Amino acid sequence: IVATFFAGLVLIVIGTGLLKPNISTLVGVLYPDGGARRDAGFSIFYMGINLGAFVAPIVCSYLGEEIGWHVGFAAAGVGMVLGLIQYQLGGKHLGTAGLYPDTGRDPAVRSKAVRSLLLGIGVVAAIIAIIYALRSSGTLDFSIAAAADGVGYLIVSIAILYFAYMFFAGGLDATERKRVSAIFVLFIFSALFWSGFEQAGSSLNLVAERLTDRVIFGWEMPAGWLQSVNAGFIIILAPVFAWIWIALARRAKEPSSPGKFTLGLTFLGLGFAVMILATQRAESGVLVSPMWLVLTYLLHTVGELCLSPVGLSTVTKLAPHRMVGQMMGVWFMSISLGNLMAGRVAGQFDQLSRPELFGRVTMFTLGGAVLLALLINPIKRLMSGVK
């Protein structure tokens, strides 16, 4: 069971790695002029993503908790197939966007890209097989926490080596070097943001399960349903934020990308401050109202809309045109790193008092917001005219 569980996770990781960077790059191609329209376009794209994120926890958690997790995971697979069908049916509206690499339609270039992809998948599969064999034979003994730490070090090392290579040997001109440097700085703060935000599926979900009164008219709502709150707010607020960015741009008052990142970290920290108050109340043994989590998710959603779609848009604007897809893939490593850190923090849920845990996260994220606020002007200079 453990082997098939991790095999499934590996397949999901590979699929996610092939989907997310490329589809985000495709959205950027649809807005070649950049500017506020591209930020707004990514906000609408983000709203579409969260239609699935809203429905999935309701359907999958209900089926998983009420019937069985085999059915819950099967429902997720069905949803992915439906998404693929929709993509094929709607692809005619995208024109040639995303069909060919920036280097052109040269079959040799495409063949090389496919070989590189297969080689990468093969290397990952070989590493996993070797680790599994060593662990099964007793030669290698490690815990999940140790493995997570190892992956974290690996992600950080790859990111540093990649940006160093791009800066010193990537064939970039002076302006491109500055812009890649700006992406690297924003990469760090993106990882910080996601280290807090991605606790929605771990520590915040534990708050929903253990500390929240979920009984409604005698029926107990599945804890997983509260995972849909964030996506619901995204669907409601994404068009609002798209309009706000365009309206502010017309008045020449739109915040810069680093400014929006600062707002994102600030609202994230405020959301965790709400959790400090909620868990302090729960410490007395009283189940708290779900509205505490709803308020936290609202603040986190505002922060997410200030940072996540803006970050995707900013990378497509700052990255050298010939490297947008590659740079977008590296950008998603910041989200991976944030997810990993979120899991390690959530592992302290039963070791620390809950107010102390959320207090540390609050100070960490708000401290990051203050630091980024001080760096806004230097980052803007590195961006060399990109808004």
Characterize the structure shown.
By secondary structure, the chain is an all-alpha fold. The protein is built from 12 helices and 2 strands; from the N terminus they run H-H-H-H-H-H-H-E-E-H-H-H-H-H. Helix 6 runs antiparallel to helix 12 (354-382) and helix 9 (257-282) packs antiparallel against helix 10. It is globular, with a radius of gyration of 22 Å. The mean pLDDT is 84.
Using the alpha-carbon principal axes, give the shape. globular
Which blocks of ≥5 consecutive residues have pLDDT under 50? Answer: none
Amino- and carboxy-terminal Cα gap: 50 Å
**Individual helix count:** 12
What is the overall pLDDT average?
84
Structural class: mainly alpha
Number of strands: 2
Widest beta sheet: strand line-up: 1-2
The percentage of residues in β strands lies in: under 5%
Q: Helicity range of the residues? A: over 70%
**How would a crystallographer describe the biggest sheet?**
2 strands, antiparallel
Sequence of secondary-structure elements: HHHHHHHEEHHHHH
Roughly how many Å is the radius of gyration? 22 Å
What's the topology here?
Blueprint: H1 2-29, H2 35-66, H3 69-90, H4 107-136, H5 144-169, H6 174-197, H7 203-211, E1 215-216, E2 219-220, H8 228-250, H9 257-282, H10 291-318, H11 324-346, H12 354-382
Antiparallel strand pairs: 1-2
Helix pairs in contact: 1-10, 1-11, 2-3, 2-8, 2-10, 5-11, 6-9, 6-10, 6-11, 6-12, 8-10, 9-10, 9-12, 10-11
Descriptive key words:
single chain; 387 residues; mainly alpha; two-stranded antiparallel ribbon; 12 helices
